[in-house]
Amino acid sequence: MSGREDKKSNDLFYTCSLIDYIARKTKNRRADVVDALGKDTISRIYDLADVYHSDNIDQVSDDLIKAAGITCGTFDNVANARYAVPSHWDIGKVYKRLILGIAREKQIPVIEAFMQAYHSFVSDKIDEYNSSFYYDAPQNILLAFLEGTLEYKVE
User: Fold this and answer.
1) CA 26/CA 65 separation, integer angstroms
2) pLDDT tens digits, 2-40
3) What pLDDT does 150 receive?
4) Does residue 154 have a pLDDT over 60?
5) Rounded distance, CA 127 to CA 145, Å?
6) Tell me: the pLDDT tens digits for 30-41?
7) Distance of CA 121 to CAs 41, 96, 145, 148, Å?
8) Minimal CA–CA distance to 115: which of 5, 22, 10, 31?
9) pTM score > 0.85 for this model?
10) CA-CA distance, 66 to 22, in Å (whole number)?
11) Given 9, 80, 145, 155, which residue has the most CB atoms within 10 angstroms?
12) What's the first-to-final CA gap in the chain, in angstroms?
């Protein structure tokens, strides 16, 4: 481990941030970007994140958008935000923590947890920048996912 977190956590952070970057650039929901890229490509991004991270994120995202045939959508949560918009790095950190929590709690591989996180109702809640959910405590976001509701019980 070098730095504040282990390498694979940092790789996951980059992967999640890149998904958000692509989604904003193409005006698509995060789950739609994940579906367009597919599990194999996401696994490759996660495995090679240290390489991708050394390249320009605009170039990396353009290459992935082109390769996956991602077209421009109509979902623009950035334009619809009434308050300060979190960066793609901020949202990447939210997803990274959620995915690691899911993997730990469900004892499943990170990529499986990744797919579950982005295909859950929690992903839509994180993308609502006019709400406070995305900056809620990481354990509360994880509990919402695990309980399947925002009406979770803290024990």
Assistant:
1) 8
2) 556 788 999 999 999 999 999 999 999 999 999 999 999
3) 84
4) no
5) 14
6) 999 999 999 999
7) 23, 16, 8, 8
8) 31
9) yes
10) 11
11) 145
12) 33
Separation in Å, CA 34 to CA 1, 54, 79, 152: 28, 22, 21, 27
DSSP alpha helices (H): ranges in the chain?
7-26, 30-47, 49-53, 57-68, 88-106, 110-118, 121-126, 138-147
pLDDT per residue over 34-88, tens digit each? Answer: 999 999 999 999 999 999 988 999 999 999 999 999 999 999 999 999 988 999 9
Residue 115: other Cβ atoms inside 10 A: 19
Of the candidates 11, 22, 92, the residue with the CA atom closest to the CA atom of residue 46: 11
Residues 137, 146, 119, CA angle at the centre, nearest 5°?
95
Amino acid identity, residue 39?
K
98 and 122 in contact (C-beta within 8 Å)? yes
Closest CA to 63 of 47, 76, 84, 45: 45
Among 88, 123, 68, 93, residue whose Cα is nearest residue 12: 93
Q: Contact at 8 Å (CB) between 94 and 140?
A: no
pLDDT band of residue 155 (cuts 50, 70, 90) is: low
